[in-house]
Amino acid sequence: MQYDLIVIGSGPGGYRAAVLAAQRGLKVGIVEKADWGGCGLNRGCIPKNAWHHSAKLIAASRSNVKRGVQGTLIGDLAQAWDHQKKMVKAVRDNYMGNMKQLRIAGFAAQAAFVDAHTISLDGRDNLSSQHFIVATGASAFVPKPFHLIENKVLTSDELFNQAPPEGKRVAIVGSGTVATEFAFILAMLGKEVTWISQNPPLANSSFSATALKLLMEKFQQYGIEPKIGHRPEAVEIMPEGVKLILQGGAEQALVDWVLLGTGRRPHTTGLNLDAAGVNTDSKGFIKVNEYLQTAQPNIFAIGDVANQRMSANQALADAQIAVANILHPHARKQDRSAVPELVYSALEMGRIGLNGAAENKDPAIGLATFENNPRAIGQDAIDGFVRLVADAQSGVLLSGEAVGPEASELVHIIAQHYGQPDALQHLAQAYYNHPARAEEIFTVAAEIAAKLNQQMAQQAVLNI
User: Fold this and answer.
1) What is the 3-state secondary structure (H, E, C) of 169-203?
2) What is the pLDDT of residue 359?
3) Which of 98, 359, 413, 442 is at 20 to 30 A from 162, Cα to Cα?
4) CB of 81 closer than 8 Å to CB of 154
5) Please, are residues 325 and 293 in contact by the beta-carbon 8 Å criterion?
């Protein structure tokens, strides 16, 4: 059977690509060898955000007394696991129903390329298509000296796949987003967390030093502090738990189980990419151009398998770009800095745009904290800020950052104007609800706009 588009992988990017293409009249098939919805739905951002919401409720309950609300909430990871399983099933059922309504053909099988226009399903039946999108995601990386041991050493994949292990003491290993998020989530859900991190948390992210400092201060308030500069050199499974021997052997940690947050690697196993003429780089990522085409122009790759900024947000954005270019070749280029970057931890943190080194040599920067924001004060949650960075010459919005409660929503307001020369004007002239955290976006935009207007006025006088 001939298709206009076959998508390989049903995670956030693959699912969105299939839906967008079907909505635009293409005949679409989607192939999934494991769980429909991929990692994002079953083992990633969807269940993790459910747990983060619970963790926030528990953390906030510690200040309930002064609000006239009695009692402190207590976390239960086992119950939280049951809840997320039911929630994931409900979302998956909705996904499948939407696919059926859009007449997207679903194939539960391992896809492998036969050539650039044909795939096999489990090595047997063949499907032909004018275009393909590879959206097979990534697999959790297990570094030495670890190897997966049921109920003892696991990644977030195993944590969501199976009921959590017994035991209160948990070691979290890693410094990236997964480790930073689960250090807070598991601590709030009743676990005694030992966080082992070779590098400072989120050191490789693009968040500002101000944001990272505030995050660490918030962790300290909850009694969570990473052991920075440590790397497990040996692992011993003992009757009383898992013993981690840290770098140099000078320190040990004894826990009931270990959660690895040590990154992910692109998943291309079994795809037979060579048969289609699709190339990968030295790290295993599928090589794509700015239109997300591989070496074969009719084959696109999106999300974690091709995008080193591994996140559901990037995969969803990639899906839009790929489908646009299938419908209208070379219609849209991918700008990965234009995709929001989020961390859900002791503080919500969201950002958009270039990182510090690339922002500008002498940018115009504005920052407004939530300390005097009426809504933040009313919520007893004044930690956080909004930060905007603009080019001092053109006024183009180079980056934006929101830290604190509702940051994951606030960043969308900033994202709508990223890269636009009139962004500050739009943000400063828009109307906002009161009281609202979003008002601080207005505060910052108006502040920077005023500075730039003064500079331009002074420059005009000098040029007379």
Assistant:
1) EEEEECCCHHHHHHHHHHHHCCCEEEEEECCCCCC
2) 55
3) 98
4) no
5) yes
SS3 (DSSP) at 236: strand
pLDDT at 457: 45
Confidence check: pLDDT of 461 > 50? no
Q: Name the band, by pLDDT with cuts 50, 70 and 90, for residue 255.
A: very high
Which contiguous run of DSSP H or E holds residue 442? helix 439-462
| C-beta of residue 137 within 8 angstroms of C-beta of residue 12 | no
Residue 464: the pLDDT is 43
- Token pair, residue 266, equals 């692109």
pTM of full prediction above 0.85:
yes
Q: Cβ atoms within 10 A of the Cβ of 433, count?
A: 9
DSSP lists the bridge partners of residue 118 as 115, 128
| 313 vs 275: CA distance, rounded Å | 30
Containing 314, the helix (H) or strand (E) segment is helix 312-327
Q: Is the pLDDT of residue 189 over 90?
A: yes
Cα(139)–Cα(39) distance, integer angstroms: 9
Core vs surface per residue 50-65: b (16+ CB within 10 A) or e: bbbebbbebbbbeeee
Q: Report the length, in residues, of the chain.
A: 464
- What domains are defined for the chain? 2-140+265-337 (3.50.50.60), 153-262 (3.50.50.60), 347-458 (3.30.390.30)
Cα–Cα distance, 95 to 169 (Å, whole number): 36
